[in-house]
């Protein structure tokens, strides 16, 4: 009964939140922030594009725009908000059932807020870097992730082209390591805003390397290689891909998966076998399209070894 109430409250709560967000344009609102950062990056792409011959309204521009708002807002309305609230209540109930408080591996709550935020940002990015590697290594996870790699022409909104299954996979896997942190920060908007801005830039048609900061921050020059259709077989066999970083490039440099052999401006994007990948939103969503082509074969070969 309690869980049904949580589900009902989550729906009403999320719907009210969404209406409030739309009604009150302000920067500390995910909807308006996402819109603003998208417009800003798009203006930069128009003024100073890296691939000058790419159309201003590139291939799949509108499809990716829809993915952006579906994944960020509509998907939660369809049930994800309810599901994640029930999951966290079940987690707390499990601890209560054991007669214990949720286990805290590392208590940061006495640390200055800024230090807590920076620590949390690095840890979350590292956990997500590992999840991203899994998405490339495990064949059934790769089926979901193919949607993101089906981008043929790159622009800022490709950032949020992904199967909704990825949201569930990321949240499920990162839930436990992040919940082991004792943290007193309640508002993570600034961290999310930074991650969204870096993610938009990573996929943008802009030439950015971040100079000496390239060892720390991911960039479009680096992330384009993550989307390369053809990579050296030894790189695929080794890790299933290259440059898995989300906001940070640090983990790729530390763990040997960084790959930036030359300027990747005119790289062919996609994955081997993507010629038969469906083009529309619904066709890409359900069921996850069967993996075909060499990329999948490479992963399978690697896993059989
Ligand atoms: Zn990927
Ligand atoms: Zn990407």
Please tag this protein with its features.
2 strands, 305 residues, two-stranded parallel ribbon, disordered C terminus, globular
Number of domains: 1
Low-confidence runs: 297-305
Biggest β-sheet: count, sense, barrel?
2 strands, parallel
Q: Give the helices and strands as they follow along the chain.
A: HHHEHHHEHHHHHH
Question: Would you kindly provide a written description of the structure presented here, covering whatever features stand out?
Answer:
The chain has 305 residues and is mostly helical. The chain has one domain. The chain has 12 helices and 2 strands. It has helices at 2-23, 30-47, 61-97, 113-137, 139-149, 164-179, 189-202, 220-226, 233-239, 250-255, 281-285, 293-304; strands at residues 106-107, 181-182. A two-stranded parallel sheet has the order 1-2. Helix 4 (113-137) crosses helix 5 (139-149) and helix 4 (113-137) packs across helix 6 (164-179). The longest helix is centred in the first third of the chain and has 37 residues, at 61-97. The model is unreliable at 297-305 (pLDDT under 50). The structure holds zinc ion (2 copies). One zinc ion binds at residues 132, 136, 145, 148-149, 226.
């Amino acid at each position: 009964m309690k869980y049904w109430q949580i589900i009902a409250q989550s729906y009403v709560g999320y719907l009210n939140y969404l209406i409030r967000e739309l009604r009150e344009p302000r920067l500390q609102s995910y909807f308006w922030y996402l819109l603003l950062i998208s417009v800003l990056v798009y203006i930069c792409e128009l003024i100073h594009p890296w691939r000058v011959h790419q159309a201003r309204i590139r291939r799949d521009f509108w499809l990716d725009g829809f993915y952006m708002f579906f994944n960020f807002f509509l998907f939660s309305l369809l049930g994800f908000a309810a599901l994640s609230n029930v999951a966290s209540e079940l987690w707390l109930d499990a601890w209560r059932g054991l007669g214990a408080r949720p286990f805290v591996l590392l208590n940061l709550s006495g640390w200055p807020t800024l230090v807590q935020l920076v620590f949390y940002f690095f840890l979350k990015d590292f956990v997500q870097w590992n999840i991203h590697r899994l998405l490339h290594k495990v064949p059934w996870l790769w089926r979901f992730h193919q949607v993101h790699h089906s981008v043929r022409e790159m622009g800022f909104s490709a950032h949020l082209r992904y199967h909704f299954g990825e949201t569930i996979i990321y949240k499920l896997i990162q839930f436990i390591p992040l919940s082991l942190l004792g943290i007193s920060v309640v508002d993570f908007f600034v961290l999310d805003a930074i991650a969204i801005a870096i993610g938009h830039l990573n996929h943008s048609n802009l030439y950015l390397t971040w100079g000496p900061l390239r060892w720390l921050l991911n960039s479009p020059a680096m992330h384009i290689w993550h989307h390369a259709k053809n990579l050296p077989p030894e790189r695929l066999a080794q890790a299933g891909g290259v440059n898995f970083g989300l906001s940070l490039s640090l983990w790729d440099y530390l763990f040997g998966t960084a790959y930036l052999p030359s300027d990747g401006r005119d790289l062919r994007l996609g994955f081997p076998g993507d010629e038969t990948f469906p083009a529309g939103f619904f066709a890409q969503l359900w069921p996850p399209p069967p993996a075909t082509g060499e990329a999948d074969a490479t992963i399978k070969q690697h896993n059989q070894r």
